[in-house]
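Two proteins, back to back. First:
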Amino acid sequence: MKTYKYPDRIAWEPLQQRPELDVTSLFDTVREVLEDVRMNGDEAVRRYGERFDKVRITDLQVSAEEISEAESVLDEELKTAIVTARRNIEKFHASQRVEGKKIETMPGVMCWQKSVAIEKVGLYIPGGTAPLFSTVLMLAVPARIAGCKEIVLCTPPNREGKIHPAILFGAKVAGVSKIVKAGGIQAIAAMTYGTQSVPKVYKIFGPGNQYVVAAKQLVSLKDVAIDMPAGPSEVEIIADETANPAYIAADFLSQAEHGSDSQSILVTTSESLAEAVKREIDRQLSELPRRDFTEQSLMHSRIVILKNDDEIVGFTNQYAPEHLIIQTANYAELSEKIRNAGSVFLGPYTPESAGDYASGTNHTLPTKGYAKMYSGVNLDSFIRKITFQEITEDGLKLLGPTIEIMAANEQLDGHKNAVSIRLKK
């Protein structure tokens, strides 16, 4: 892992290059599966499940008995942790409710906005050896608080045809209404088009491999909404000489666990801290069971030493990290200057993993610099806003001439007449 000392601003962009996730080469394969599921429904979902997940599923829907069994075998300590995390996520997302107010923009002209939940949403949860039950909470809890009537969760089964019990328990306590044993492209297709077992949804959320990312991109072009564009996970850490090198190294390495294409960047004004962090990374890395996997991720990571806080703020807002950790003496002051970041972690006792699991904030966040224009998942992600207006006769007499002049100058006589005909009474 390289250290870059005092690079000029013109050199920042190359230092901010992320690992590429180009899925366009997969589009032909993905389109074929999408179309097959659209035409053949459950039969195609089962067929691809047998091909990719190596298991033939008769009943795609998880039964109540399977959920009860999962709850009975799951470790009590883990169940308690999941419930605690759910409670915090509920508190934070429930606080995001906003009541629309009626505004009189001029006498007799009333405008207001109404929040309406997206009726049907789909959640995709990857399978594998490390089941992301935390993501179940991050997506299902705000969906339930928003008032979504149907929350469909798709996740691939193991080779015995079972779903990890932590995912099932998380889905139960979070309020998921239907769980489907399907993964990959076929799961995205099933939620997009609907099958005999899987309802058609209006918006799809959740992470996945490159095939899932490609499928979400394609279906979002005309068939369904998605949460946001996706890319490899990343963290930027801002630290000064007061920071604990062991804490920073631990945050560096925890990010590396997300995937071999993850990225960690330390930005600091302290050369001595940079050296101490490198030594600490080497020490902690030797103790990790997945060292080879983590080392791959560190190939994309770097340390950047800058001259002052102004440069650090400029670098950060240009990079727009998914996760931003600030461990400096003036972290509160520095954080006020941050404009582009997915989620920010302040002070020495706020590791990224707090937000990943249980502090209450959401861990589904924009990557690849999309934090410049996208927010992370929040309550509004599951809500639509409808605007209303009501105008009295006197209100139209007051507002009408403005509309007529504007419509006439845009040469839209029909628009003008819709007002004029009412004013001629």
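And the second protein:
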Amino acid sequence: MASYTYPLTINSEEEEVVREAAKQVNLKLNMYRDNFPTLPLERVITMVAYDFSLKNL
């Protein structure tokens, strides 16, 4: 995610969900980067986290 690798230990039955979650984060990250190209990556990541938090309330 965000050009970083995060090694995880997960059960094989969780792999599909974990990969989909990473895909969704990257899609949202790319959307924000396209809309706000001058913002530093850490600000964009914060916006992505906030966006997902709002959707899970």
